[in-house]
Amino acid sequence: MNEMAIFRRNKTWATDFTVNGQRYRSSLGTRDWREAQAREKELIARAINGKLSPTGQQFARLAFTEAADRNLEDRTAHLAARSIITERERLKAPRTFFGAVPLTRISADSIRQYVAQRKAMGLSNRTINMEVSCIARILRRAKRWHLVGDEIKPLPERRNVGRALTGGQKKNLLNTAASRPEWQIARLAACLAFNTTMRACEIRRLRWQDVDFMERTLTIRHSKTEAGERVIPLNSDALAAVLELRDRAMLLFGTELDAEWYLFPHGEGQGPVTQPKNRPGPPASVRPDPTKPIVTWRTAWRRLTKEAGLPGLRFHDLRHHAITELAESSASDHTIMAIAGHVSAKMLAHYSHVRLEAKRQALDALSSKVAGGVTSQPTSQIASPAAQVFENLVDVRGFEPLTPCLQSNVR
What we know:
Elements: E1 3-9, E2 12-19, E3 22-27, H1 33-48, H2 54-60, H3 64-75, H4 81-90, H5 92-98, H6 108-120, H7 125-141, H8 145-148, H9 167-177, H10 184-196, H11 200-204, E4 211-212, E5 217-220, E6 230-233, H12 236-253, E7 265-266, E8 289-293, H13 298-307, H14 316-328, H15 333-340, H16 345-351, H17 356-371, H18 385-393
Antiparallel strand pairs: 1-2, 2-3, 4-5, 5-6, 7-8
């Protein structure tokens, strides 16, 4: 038999009930009697269904800082090392704000106060939303988020769908990158992004074992998502960039390259690589470490884009541009998603919005058909656009012909 009781605790209603011999105590987070009764019934129902465990009750009594540490420690086995570092950074501000406050005392009002404080400090809505998500994960484990979650709405975020360059902008960017030796790494990374759709994190983690010179392919073994793990054919521009990286590595580390080494090693210098006199490589104190991946080329990228007249251009926009070029080609959606590593047509649409000029050309083609008298033919004799596309995609054997890999328009 279930025993229950509602009582006041610091002007707020709380409940103390027993289900199947297990006792549960929890704040109901309200001063309204009717609302307290409804919330108690909800907690009892969760306890009966096994969704309110004693462990959650004990976790809910922890101070926020201790609960945050324990929750992050327990999630370590399920997250990548970088994700753990990121979440630890996002929890710094919530730890400072809530401190020793028990999870049972965190209310919707206190979370709104936290959001207002961070907003007053000039933080972006996206940053604040990610921090609140970390708070929510901790409260969910304590079986507390359902008490406050309905009152916490995410702040509006600016939806940046990415940027596709014009042909002139792309050519100018690569020509500018080739004008200074200190931009070599940024230029080679940009060439790979333009010609493979790879993300920056995928490029940084490339090893020589991932390059197949015989098949002219790159294997992406580590990516943002499981769909990102894929094999990408190398076109001529991408292959030229990989060969230049190989020549650079041979000058730095000798004639034999270890398969475990990274294409973009940690600690790359700012200048060009030259063969030093009487030594197989540069001094050990300044030699990059090929056993670790490069951290970033951000500084060189910012200077490069500013010089090229493209300030604010993100490196990720190069991936967006490459997917847009693929979308404007004759490649099917399935082929584009296989190259780019997308998992759905919705994600494809996020990146591959076709540029205005391509749309105009498609509509102009419709106009030329009308002017040429195509519409005067019987409807049954006019091949539909869908049927023509299907005919182009399927050969005489009934198979989709091989789609050529992405080629750069820049020479």
